[in-house]
Amino acid sequence: MDRDIESRQDVFNLVDKFYKKIRADEMLGPIFNRAISDWPEHLEKLTDFWESQLLFTKRFRGNPQQAHIDIDAREGHSISNAHFGHWMNIWFETADELYKGEITERAKHNARKMSTFLYLKIWEARPNKDS
Question: What is the pTM of this model?
Answer without folding.
Answer: 0.92
